[in-house]
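pipeline/complex-builder :: batch 7 item 3
reading input block
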Amino acid sequence: EADIYQTPRYLVIGTGKKITLECSQTMGHDKMYWYQQDPGMELHLIHYSYGVNSTEKGDLSSESTVSRIRTEHFPLTLESARPSHTSQYLCASSETGDGQPQHFGDGTRLSIL
Amino acid sequence: GENVEQHPSTLSVQEGDSAVIKCTYSDSASNYFPWYKQELGKGPQLIIDIRSNVGEKKDQRIAVTLNKTAKHFSLHITETQPEDSAVYFCAASIRGGGADGLTFGKGTHLIIQP
């Protein structure tokens, strides 16, 4: 049963549009993450957050930005979408501290035409 | 930082046989090792995890073993079934959590042949 929700599940949109991918979790987790993944392939961390008002860049450089105004909400924004942004975006959350598993949403499959 | 290597990248086994996926890690400070299963169109789901003070853990048909000296850990699936077909990811977490929590392997595509 999913306690972390991503919307939309699929998005096909034209080049140059502004896009916001939504992620919400009901577990009260402080840490949240965004990964970029080509289907079935390696997970690349692009953003993470320790808690409200905290945002950090991950290992893979990304033109996207994130915000964390509320604990449960961690949206990702692309100001001007390009075909190179076509990918799957996965959101996850975890408790803070040693040895905490990450709980993933089912992702947003983004296609930029 | 931590580096996690995962092998094989693809594994095909006959239904009913066992499957083994292996991972190695580089940082001896790592102390938590989860395994995730990702089915088509879904996010990765935690299936089993192990901490560095334990050598083996079982949950029905799946088990994980950890060798801290050699810095490797393995996922074992016995009596494989068609629904076991998926991509499996191993991960490692450095004591103290690290800046980004978990370092993932590149994944193994497990195919169960009927």
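note: Chain A has a mean pLDDT of 93.
queue -> next item
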